[in-house]
Design goal:
heterodimer, A: mainly alpha, B: mainly alpha, two-stranded antiparallel ribbon
Chain lengths: 296, 306
């Protein structure tokens, strides 16, 4: 009877090994599916044009024939370094603003007791359901009225791209959760020590919640790196644009041949910085993303 | 609660965030509802003819591209969301079964990559993958004797272009879902599986009776947010097809509701354009609300909150 239910040990081990083998095979299959676009981008970026326009395509280029000239061609076509600098400037400014405003408000929601707190928090959460396009329409008029669009200076362009994004309900919610996990005892202890709320926030809560703040910083920077619609709407000159716009504009509606080798070289220039940041800060990014999927 | 009320101090802490939210979130919501009821509003001149309940919605609904835009939006959402949720669920279960931690981390990193890339850059790479003459997809199909298909090239049809777009959108959506599901799986108490093993339940039964029910709040959350995201598809289309939103010679074939909003916004100086943009955005909001509501109703019956 026991034999029938459990089988013998060898059999179980073999079955488990086969099962694991199938799991690995499936994982490898999907990993290849994920990696193919990256491989194709890199491969095309290092091919000479004649090899790019070959049918059937070459699936491999030996290291001795790697063509790095495509990158300088791409950089001549559009000022990608400038776009990257713009993107970094916008990311840094909007992230600093976001962290300050969300830390202050999350502290109020997590630790202070005031009239209308729960209602206000509920209203803020409810706005997360509304599609951003509804805001974009009016925000565009608002930044025009603020004088940030017409006869635009670099400073104005930066303002238009950062100020509307200097806070976030989602990050506020995210930080409030982190603040709430700080034990109340610490708060009372700080009070006994004669610390003010402000000192308590910056000296105790912020250091404790630093992993969450780091995650917010990274997620916010990544959003800027991907931003396309808003920068396109509010920048008046090519040199004020961010990487996504710069990349699309450089190769859109092109007259003449489509220059795939240059396209992919430029795409790689835009993709690599983010991947480097990711590999360096993997722990924080992954934690932030997996946590953002967990409510409550 | 902690101590007594600190009304004034609290509002001081909230002020920076509330000023920004008031300007860039709350005011725009009210203004959208205001704009949509203005007749022939021109924001450059600041003039309008009066108030109207339906004119602006009528403009959007009678737009020759509206049906295509709505159809594309729905198709993208209803194909890419279920597909990517199911694939992501399977991948995360397999990932969770990998006994070697370092190997698991390695696969995890690969599956996460689409999340940290630029949607425009990768969209361009996908467009070239689907290139008729030089692309990898047709080379692969050629191995099976299939002659090259014009997926996204000059005057490519709606069907092939949409297929390519769906592959890209699904690919792009996997990373986030896999991470969320995997962290959910790692949070499931091992006791459930041990109990199932003692009862010698089959693998598929364990998956259906334990894994899916215990993960259901997360599956639900991911499905709702993914639908909301998919209804807003736009940047992916720009990435693959550029500003013409379709294959060359078949312009705007991949147009979506969001594209209608931005089309109208691009004409912001002309009479009625902003109200039309507001109407299109509110229609999108309506669609989002309806589907979120339906999802919630389904979840009441199906989701297991343990």
């Amino acid at each position: 009877m026991e034999q029938a239910v459990y089988g013998n040990e060898k059999q179980i081990k073999r079955r488990r090994r086969i099962r694991l083998g199938i799991v690995y095979a499936l994982l490898v299959f999907f990993a290849i599916f994920i990696l193919i676009p990256f491989y194709w981008m890199i491969l095309t970026a290092i091919k000479v044009e004649a090899d790019v326009l070959r049918s059937p395509p070459l699936l491999w280029v030996s290291p001795t024939e790697w063509q790095f000239a495509n990158f300088s061609l791409a950089l001549e076509r559009a000022p990608f370094v400038r776009f990257i600098i713009n993107t970094v400037v916008v990311a840094v400014i909007s992230t600093i603003g976001t962290v300050i405003t969300t830390v202050l408000s999350a502290f109020a929601f997590a630790r202070l007791n005031f009239f209308g707190r729960d209602i206000l928090f509920f209203i803020l959460i409810a706005t997360m359901m509304i599609p951003g396009e509804i805001f974009v329409i009016t925000n565009f008029i608002t930044v025009v009225n603020f004088g940030w669009i017409r006869e635009q200076t670099y400073f104005n362009a930066i303002l238009a791209m950062t100020v509307p994004f200097m806070t976030s309900v989602f990050y506020m919610f995210f930080l409030r959760q982190a603040f709430k996990q700080v034990p109340d005892e610490l708060y009372y202890a700080a009070k006994v020590d004669g610390k003010t709320d402000r000192q308590y926030l910056w000296r105790i809560m912020v250091p404790i919640a630093l992993p969450t703040i780091t995650t917010i910083t990274i997620l916010n920077a990544m959003n800027t790196w991907n931003a396309y619609i808003w920068p396109r709407l509010v920048t008046q000159r090519e040199e004020f644009r961010l990487v996504s716009n710069g990349l699309r504009d450089a190769f859109d509606e092109g007259i003449g041949p489509p220059l795939y080798h240059e396209q992919m070289a430029a795409a790689l220039i835009v993709t690599v910085p983010l991947i480097i940041v990711f590999l360096m800060l993997k722990k924080y990014i992954m934690r932030g993303v997996s946590r953002s999927g967990i409510k409550g | 609660m902690l101590e007594d009320r600190h009304n004034i101090k609290s509002w001081f802490y909230l002020a920076p965030a509330l000023v920004l939210l008031g300007t860039f979130i709350f005011y725009p919501i009210f203004n959208a509802f205001f704009l949509v009821f203005l007749e022939d509003y021109n924001y450059l001149r600041g003039t309008f003819e009066g108030f109207t309940l339906t004119q602006n919605f009528r403009y959007v609904l009678t737009d020759p591209n509206f049906h295509l835009a709505m159809g594309n939006t729905m198709l993208i959402a209803f194909v890419s969301v279920p597909l990517s949720v199911v694939i992501a669920l399977l991948i995360s279960v397999w990932l969770n079964a990998v006994p070697i931690k370092r190997l698991q981390g390695f696969f995890q990193t690969i599956f996460f990559l689409p999340y940290v890339t630029n949607a425009i850059a990768i969209g361009m790479a996908f467009a070239f993958l689907f290139n008729q003459h030089y692309g990898l997809v047709n080379w692969f199909l050629g191995l099976f004797g299939i002659s090259p298909i014009n997926w996204v090239g000059l005057r490519a049809g709606w069907g092939t272009a949409m297929f390519s777009l769906l592959v890209y959108v699904t690919w792009l959506g996997l990373a986030f879902k896999i991470m969320v599901f995997l962290s959910g799986l790692q949070g499931i108490d091992k006791q459930y599986y041990e109990a199932a093993r003692v009862d010698s339940a089959s693998r598929s039964r364990i998956f259906r009776r334990i894994t899916v029910p215990l993960l259901s709040p997360m599956i639900m959350y991911i499905t709702v947010t993914s639908f909301i995201g998919a209804f807003k598809a736009y940047t992916e289309i720009i990435g693959m097809f550029g500003e013409r939103l379709g294959p060359a010679g078949n312009d705007r074939a991949m147009i979506t509701i969001v594209a209608l909003v931005y089309d109208a916004l691009d004409r912001s100086g002309t009479t009625g354009a902003l109200s039309e943009a507001a109407a299109a955005a509110l229609i999108l909001f309506g669609v989002t609300l309806i589907f979120t509501f339906i999802n919630m109703q389904v979840s009441k019956k199906r989701v297991h909150y343990g």
